[in-house]
Amino acid sequence: MKKIISLLGIALLATVNSAIAAPSLSFIINGDTFGMPFEITNQSTAGETVTRFQLDLSTIPANGPFCFDTVDGGPCNPNPQSSTAFSAAGGSGVTTGLTSPSSVTDGATLLNLLFNDFNVGETFRWNIDVDSATQVSVFGNDLIGASAFVDFSDGQRLLGTLRSVTGSPQASRFTVTGTTNVPEPGSLALLAIGVAGVLRSRRRRVLVIGGNRANTVAVAPCNPV
After folding, report:
1. 2-42, pLDDT tens digit by residue?
2. Residue 101: closest CA among 55, 141, 162, 64
3. How far apart are CA 190 and CA 179, in angstroms?
4. Angle at 18 between CA 13 and CA 21, to 5 degrees
5. What DSSP line would sit under 161-216, residue for residue?
6. Is residue 133 predicted with pLDDT exceeding 90?
């Protein structure tokens, strides 16, 4: 009985610790995206590392469409305006273990950052310009409504959007709107294999002739007229 109570206590303690521990990330852009760097900081409480951060400009509701302007005169901004290519700032790419991307295509609306050493308390800063069809100069507040998510090493994904910052009229920051689990590559692969197997079995049917399974004919499914 004491052993059972002890085990229950350990399980309860683990549950409480899990509830207290929370992955967290701050993201803010304040000012003109042409000259001001973006930055994200890992603020997790139980040692979780950041493995991925994704920013999607296509969900911004006003004054768009917005895109990343990384090439002078490229598709994002065909006017002869200066661009800012993607680059990690101040050595933060090395500190956080940035593995991808090395560059961002001009006109892209999705930024997908991958890390292998982004620890608690560390900050990743990067430069990149954002333009739109109606605005050459885009400030942080123009990105309000962009969607984003961040993945953590404990398997949690925080979903959110960029929202206004009180007292900073030219800024926006990441606000969490929900959580989910990071999709597991292994599970997705097994699902794909299962679907492929079902499709193959539907394409190939075996017709047994004269009760002897050795005499078989592959029959393709026909479409009814």
Report:
1. 443 343 333 333 333 444 457 888 998 999 998 889 999 99
2. 55
3. 24
4. 125
5. EEEEETTEEEEEEEEEEEEEEPPPHHHHHHHHHHHHHHHHHHH-EEEEETTEEEEE
6. no
| Identity of residue 185 | P
Name the pairing type of β-strands 50-56 and 147-152: antiparallel
43-75 CB burial, b ≥16 within 10 A, e <16: ebeeebbbbbbebbbeebeeebebbbbbbeebe
Q: Is the pLDDT of residue 218 over 60?
A: no
CA distances from 45 to 48, 68, 79, 115, 152 (A): 7, 33, 46, 18, 12
Q: Which tens digit of pLDDT belongs to each residue from 84-105?
A: 999 999 999 999 999 999 999 9
Residue 33 backbone dihedrals phi, psi, to 5 degrees: -65, -20
Residues in the chain: 225
**CATH architecture of the domain with residue range 22-182:** Sandwich (2.60)
